[in-house]
Amino acid sequence: QVLLVESGGGVVQPGGSLRLSCAASGFTFSSYGMHWIRQAPGRGLEWVAFIASNGIKNDYADSVKGRFTISRDNARRTLYLQVKSLRVEDTAVYYCAKDQGLSEYEQFDYWGQGALVTVSS
Amino acid sequence: AIRMTQSPSSLSASTGDRVTITCRASQDISTYLAWYQQKPGKAPKLLIYAASTLQSGVPSRFSGSGSGTDFDLTISCLQSEDFATYYCQQYYNYPRTFGQGTKVEI
User: Fold this and answer.
1) CB pair distance less than 8 Å for A45 and B96
2) Least buried of A22, A97, B30, B80, by fewest C-beta within 10 Å?
3) Mean of the pLDDT values across residues B32-48?
4) Mean per-residue pLDDT, A65-74
5) What is the dihedral angle through the alpha carbons of B26, A103, A82, A115, rounded to the nearest 10 degrees?
């Protein structure tokens, strides 16, 4: 079955950096677009970043552009999110999620369990 | 960015009730709309996509309708396991955007 497992969360000071990972199994990882979506404590869902199946095309929310970098290693079946210049408002659970199909217009059919990033001094 | 507005933000209901949640997009998104259910401490779960297509394994008491800018999620006969927060999301363009959520409470 499809499984997405995030890791790499933790507590970091404002201005700090972190790399989140999402290990995928149960599907042909290299065929699907992947996303990061976050949820601040007690708040709603916010889409963060997208990367195409071949890793060439990507897109970011304005709130993270220039600070976060999405990447993937299809050989290792792993998605990454490098986060830099962290702010208190980046505190959230970060979920990875996969596109359901192969088109440009896809919903998220599987989500990981989430990794908590806490930005605090 | 396309703004997604859900109403109500919360609602109180009882098991067996019929419940409808509304989602409005700030521009035409055709039927590129999904609905998710989220329970506390859990990841969201896809319920409906393409505005009205039920995801595999989702009970038939869930249904979706709409196109363009106005969409509905209906739960025909609320069960205890349906008490959760529901989000709409557009995938017409980037950035992908979600509604603010509707909490369905007892």
Assistant:
1) no
2) B80
3) 97
4) 97
5) 80
